[in-house]
Specification:
Length: 267
């Protein structure tokens, strides 16, 4: 049986991020993707025109339906929108014997808010403590901790601030800095600096969702956290390089780049 991976996230009608990006990533990496939809967005290459969260009971029912019958080897979370959804998902994750990759989605690529301000404390105190790996970008680090990273030298401070809320590992994504795309993975003891060349391509919609889903996919295959993150970084770097124009704004990364190049699922 293929490794089973569950995404708990919002739907992106444009297909570049959210549930759609998660499932494409899982397919490309050779795992079986399953989904719990937490919200529906009206979204395209220009931004988010509307968002509607699902009731907590609908989210809980989807999760239990999948996990109780099919099972799961790893879970990835994305857009959770409200404090009520954050707390319900955190409760579900705590009762699931599988690693959890938490992408604490706060804003979209276009700057649209995807998380209520009232939900930030629930993310800090309920969701991050059950995360195997938390994957905030620099804007989300500032939103959650108040630490503003303007250089690579401050990434360690950001990691310490996020780790104080309880995740086992944190991956601070430095993609918003200049120079090489550098990320810091740490559990507070070991440090892993991951670097990749920065590609001159504006079509990067869905990078955060894609990276978190790739990490979850590799964890489901039995890799360690450092191995999974390194493999996911390689995959998303290729997807960014192959990102393509779509609509009149920012296009998506190409989730199928490795399949197209190799003809087989990425390692």
């Amino acid at each position: 049986m293929k490794p089973l991976v569950l995404t708990v996230a919002g739907s992106d009608s444009g297909g570049g991020a959210g549930i759609q990006a998660d499932l494409k990533t899982m397919l490309a990496l050779g795992v079986h993707g399953m989904s719990v939809v937490t919200a529906v967005t009206a979204q395209n290459s220009l931004g988010v025109q509307g968002a509607w969260e699902l009731p907590v009971e609908a989210v809980r029912a989807q999760y239990r339906s999948v996990v109780d019958d099919i099972g799961v080897r790893a879970v990835k979370t994305g857009m959770l929108a409200s404090a009520e959804l954050v707390e319900a998902v955190a409760e579900l994750l705590a009762a699931t014997d599988a690693p959890a990759v938490v992408d604490p989605v706060g804003v979209s690529k276009h700057g649209d808010s995807l998380l209520a301000t009232s939900a930030l404390e629930s993310v800090r105190t309920r969701l991050l403590p059950v995360a195997t790996v938390a994957t905030p970008n620099l804007d989300e680090v500032a939103q959650l901790t108040g630490v503003r990273v303007d250089s690579e030298s401050r990434m360690r401070e950001a990691a310490e601030a996020v780790l104080s809320y309880g995740p086992t590992w944190v991956l601070i994504k430095g993609g918003h800095l200049t120079g090489d795309a550098v990320d810091l993975l740490t559990d507070g003891r070991a440090e892993h600096w991951l670097r990749a060349p920065r590609h001159d391509n504006r079509h990067t919609h869905g990078t955060g969702c894609t990276l978190a889903s790739a990490i979850a996919s590799q964890l489901a295959k039995g890799q360690s956290v450092p191995e999974a993150v390194a493999a996911a970084k390689e995959y998303v770097t290729g997807a960014i390089a192959a990102g393509f124009a779509l609509g009149g704004g920012i296009g998506p990364v190409d989730h199928a780049w490795a399949l197209t190049r190799r003809g087989t699922p990425a390692a």
